[in-house]
Design a protein that fits this description.
With about 250 residues, this protein is of the alpha/beta class. The protein has one domain (about 10-230): Alpha/Beta hydrolase fold, catalytic domain (Rossmann fold, 3-Layer(aba) Sandwich), CATH 3.40.50. Helices cover about 40% and strands about 15% of the residues. A 7-stranded mixed sheet has the order 1-3-2-4-5-6-7, sandwiched between helices. The longest helix has 14 residues, at about 60-70. The chain starts with 8 loop residues before the first strand and ends in a 23-residue tail after the last helix. Residues about 115-130 and about 245-253 have low confidence and may be disordered.
Length: about 250
Amino acid sequence: MANRPPLPTLVEGDGRPLLLLHGFAMQPTTYLPLVRLLAPRVRVVVPAIFALPGRWTFDAALDLLAETLDHFGVDRVSLLGHSFGGGLELGFAARHPHRVVECVFADTLAVRERFHLAAEALSSPLGLVTMATPPAVTAFARSVLTHPVQLARAGLWAFATDRQGDMARVVEARIPCHVLWANRDTLLHRADGEEFARCLRATFTVAEDPTVDHDWMFDDPELFAAHLDALGLKAFRPGNGSAGRSPRRTAAT
C-alpha cells in the first residue's frame, strides 16, 4: 500500500545505520539502555514490529520494515535481531540481500519449528519465571494491551515456519552473519543456535558471563555491547572505542 505511515520507530545516534529488531512482545524502549551505548557510533533504528496496521503477516511485516527504512532514508543497513526479531531479520535479509550489510542474531528463532520449538520454549518453566524481569514484564503487558491480535498471529507464524529456505538464500547472497548466545539461555537451546550458525556459515559466540539469560540484550546491555563490539562489525567505525566493557573471551565456530 503506497503512502502508508512507517512503523513507530525509536531512532538514536549518528553514523552507519543499525536496524534492531526486538523480541516477541517487547517494545523499542525496552532496548533503550543498549541503544544509548551504541548511539555514539551508529544510528540505531528500532521499529515497533508488532504495530502493523490491519492483520499481521510475515510478508506485510517485511514490506513495512522496508518502507520504514525508506522513510528514514536508510538504503543499506546492518541488522541485529533478538529472539523473535531474528526470524524477521532472516526473512528481510533473504528478500532484500542488496540492502543488508551484515547480520547479527542474538538468542533467536533458529532451525527448530512447530512442536520442537514449543517443547524447547516450555522445557524450563522455572526459567521462564526467572526471565520475568521488570523491563520484560512491562513491555509484554503493554504489547498485549495494544496489539493482542498481531501478537497472536506473529506467534503462530514463529511456531509454524520453516526457515531453511531463507537461510539458504542468505548464504547464497554471502551476507556476513554472526550468532550471539546467552551462556544459560533458559528459553532456547544453545545447540539450536549452534546449528543455526552452521547453516548460515556464521560465527557463534557464547556470552562469557555464566549468569546471563535469554534477555541479556537489555538485562546486561554493557556485556552485550562488548560482545557485539568484538565481532568487528562494518557498522562500527574504527577508532571510536568500545561500546561496553571488554569480554574476556569469544568462542566461534
